[in-house]
Design brief:
With 128 residues, the chain is an alpha+beta fold. The chain has one domain (3-126): Gcn5-related N-acetyltransferase (GNAT) (Aminopeptidase, 3-Layer(aba) Sandwich). The protein has helices at 3-10, 20-30, 83-100, 119-126, and strands at 33-37, 43-52, 69-77, 105-110, 113-118. Strands 1-2-3-4-5 form a five-stranded mixed β-sheet. β1 and β2 form a beta hairpin. The longest helix is centred in the C-terminal third of the chain and has 18 residues, at 83-100. The chain starts with a helix and ends with a helix. The mean pLDDT is 91.
């Protein structure tokens, strides 16, 4: 299974977009897609994230490698929210940390609205 197929199967809302595959492919081509796999090469989770600058509008297809914030566009795991789904989320955060390094803020969209967190506090709490 490919990461795009995993995301489509996961039921994320964005998979209904007519340009969903092209949108995910953009992240992949930019090196902005993290995929977590198990020992059998099965996908456990996929995340799409990019760097953005503070105070700037977070438009689609905007990435600044030197941006001081991380915007997580999409994060999906294979598990139902339980103890087993926590490990893949932590794995995806470690991939994000390895790829982008430390930043000021981490931003997610919650119910259509951006939600910002202090990067260090978020990582410390999430990876504990």
């Amino acid at each position: 299974m490919t990461p795009i197929e995993f995301l489509e199967k996961s039921g994320v809302y964005e998979a209904m977009w007519p340009n969903f595959r092209e949108w995910v492919a953009w992240f992949d081509k930019q090196g902005l897609m993290g995929t977590l796999r198990d020992r059998n090469d099965e996908i456990l989770g996929v995340a799409l994230a990019r760097c953005v600058n503070s105070g700037s509008e977070v438009g689609h297809y905007v990435h600044d490698e030197h941006g001081d914030n991380i915007f997580v566009d999409l994060c999906a795991t294979s598990g139902i929210r339980n103890a087993e789904s926590v490990a893949p989320l932590k794995g995806l955060l470690l991939i994000l940390l390895d790829r982008f390094g430390p930043r000021k803020r981490i931003i997610f969209k919650r119910l259509g609205q951006p939600k910002e967190y202090d990067y260090y506090k978020f990582m410390r709490k999430a990876l504990a």
